[in-house]
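Sharing a chain and its predicted structure for anyone who wants a worked example. Both blocks are below, sequence first, tokens second.
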Amino acid sequence: MAHPFNTLNNENGVWKAPIYSPLLSATVELIVEAEKQPQAWQKSIFDELTDNDSTLKNDLYQAISAYCHATYSDYHDSTSSHSNCHTSNNAQGLTPHTILISDMAPEKKEISLLFDCAWESEHGLHVIIRDGKIADIGFQRIAF
């Protein structure tokens, strides 16, 4: 099976390919920002993510659930349900769509996961993985 980086197509300095992500249990778009071609350090960051996806998956959905509970009341009235925030329901309330590796400095070892989500349909969700751990969760606009 070909490495996902071998399937990337250049679209004006942004390299893209649809891939299946075991971490996200979905087919998503892999986006790698690079002017000429994706760099070895970007591939290494992707490989680290996929090598750790089984251990990271539980942490990912627990962190998303905690974020949802912490912010839900900011965007919904007090009578609405937090049912989409429960860890066991996150797969139903979330639709992953992008894995993004920017052209930032290699020492950051940072990768972004972007989701549409039921409790924040306007902005979606952005999770930053740094050094193999959940570093930040917020609206998708923090990705750009």
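Comments welcome. The chain has one domain: 14-19+26-74+86-143.
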